[in-house]
Amino acid sequence: MAILVQKFGGTSVADAEKIRRAAGRALKAHQEGNQVVVVASARGKQTDHLVADAMELDPNPPKREMDMLLSTGEQQTVSLMAMALHAMGHKAISFTGQQVQMITDDAHSKARIQSIGAEKLKEKLADGYICIVAGFQGVDANGNITTLGRGGSDTSAVALAAALGADYCEIFTDVDGIYSADPRKFPKAVKMQQISYDEMLELASLGAGVMHSRAIEFGKKYNVKIHVRSSMNENTGTLITHEVPQMEGIVVSGATCQKDLAKFDLIGVDNTPGNAAGIFAHLASHKVSVNDIIQTEVSPQKASLSFTAARSDLDSVRQAIDEIREKVHCESVFVREDIAEVSVVGVGMRSHCGVAEKMFRALSENQVNIDSITTSEIRISCLVNLEDVDTALTAVCNAFELDKPAAERAQS
Ligand code: ASP
Ligand code: MG
Question: How far is ligand 2, taken at its centre, from the CA of residue 358, in Å?
């Protein structure tokens, strides 16, 4: 019997009617001959409400207590869903993260899964139960409840699918699948039939907030195919899977933009071994995660270094730079808050030329100035003025024909 993991996000379980509908979907999959494990998120905006409750009492709550509190959101959903299935006359049982031995490290609020004890689930599945597991939560070696970071139920679901040896993990959400660009920003964007793990990872980390990126890493590592689809209809969504040869033919599969950035330029730092290591170690000690690092040698003695970080980390970065400036003999520091990034992603870039040129031309024809450029094997990103970013995204979407199904796009 095939094992199927179905994950329902917050909007798909927001009220009793939606919980019933989700339960109905799980039941249907069961009746079609699958052993079904459901992973559920907190209902609607429940996690946000819990965060607000905490803030009223303590603006800086202990992380352990925060995880205790936030984990209750998912616990409500799973018990309610089990009741919904019970009322439909079916055997169902809910589990917390701890009860399925979702063991994590002790990094509260961003814990990483270390192992999952799937035996209990397998037993219940064999007994004909639909099992419903609370997403987003785990337990550390000392029995403390942990959470995996906002949006982490995706990761719980894919990790469980891996642990159970499931071939597929269905992610039910309020959108139809993954689009070539965010349809709110580029209304003509098209739904992709499939996308590779690597492309999806790039898009997820570039602000295309469809899925938790750890979930995609798990999928890639353990060969779990992820089907992102709507909980409102039966349409096929988007399959996130290993790269297949025909993906190479698609030069650019998606475009995205990120607006919550700040850029930092450290001009004239000493050009000596260990300097960059010192600067970034110091930033890391302030828990800042940086992106798009560019270092250039200005002279044999001096180099310039720039990077981006989340705008919410602005103060921490400023403080870290102030503390380390003298030590690395940095001559001047520039900070830009009015910056944003537009990116295109596609595995086909590896084997096609002219992709960068096409992107830069599209931007220039729309009078968008490029501040700086970074690339990976399958991505090109440009920093642009924040006020230009919507124009920039539309320009690149048009240039790469992201309004057409992949098979109909011109080959660069
Ligand atoms: N309920 C958690 C959140 O809102 C986890 C999730 O939805 O995946 O972030
Ligand atoms: Mg969510």
Answer: 35
